[in-house]
Amino acid sequence: MPIRGSCLCGAVTFEIEKATGPIELCHCNRCRKVSGGAALASIGVRTDDYRFLTGREFVRTYDAPILYEAPAYRSMFCSVCGCPVPPPDVTPGHHFEIAAGLFDDDPGVTADRHIFVELTPAWDDTRDNHPRLTFGELHRLRTGEELPPHFRMRTHGS
């Protein structure tokens, strides 16, 4: 059964047969900027297991300047919602990475490692013991109120 994925607005869709891994949490400054977060979680995929389904016309590419050696850092994004997206065209027989947050279905793999940790900013402590809050707990913390009973957070399998 294919593992589906999409951008934030749903214009770009794709699927894979399986994720090969690894899932790397990249802390380099370019991946942080592309993701807007502390790290970009990406999942390794074989190109032969990948199918780009819809939204080719919405995919835009940005090639950042070369810092050390070729190839340059390339990011692709949806021109509608700005979400990172995988490439519409890939070379058969190769391996590439897809941002883990794009998967709508469980890819069946978990994070393997943090990479480029020497570039981790001081505010990002990857060994933290911060609380892990559910949506309901976060809502209660921020508003002092319980989540309305009709509101249901969508989770895997729902």
**What count of domains describes the coordinates?**
1
Unreliable runs: none
Q: Looking at CATH, which topology would you report?
A: Metal Binding Protein, Guanine Nucleotide Exchange Factor, Chain A
Query: How large a portion of the residues is in β-strands, by DSSP E?
Result: 25-35%
Strand order of the largest sheet: 8-4-3-9
| Shape label | globular
Question: Could you give the distance between the termini?
Answer: 17 Å
Note the total helix count.
2
Q: Estimate percent helicity.
A: 10-25%
Average residue-wise pLDDT: 88
Outline the biggest β-sheet.
Answer: 4 strands, mixed
Class computed from helices, strands and strand pairing = mainly beta
Name the CATH class: Mainly Beta
Give the tally of β-strands. Answer: 9
The CATH architecture can be named as Beta Complex
Keywords for this entry:
Metal Binding Protein, Guanine Nucleotide Exchange Factor, Chain A; mainly beta; 158 residues; single chain; globular; 10% helix; four-stranded mixed beta sheet; three-stranded antiparallel beta sheet
Descriptive overview:
This protein is mainly beta. The chain has one domain (3-122): Metal Binding Protein, Guanine Nucleotide Exchange Factor, Chain A, CATH 2.170.150. Helix content is 10%, strand content 28%. The chain contains 2 helices and 9 strands.
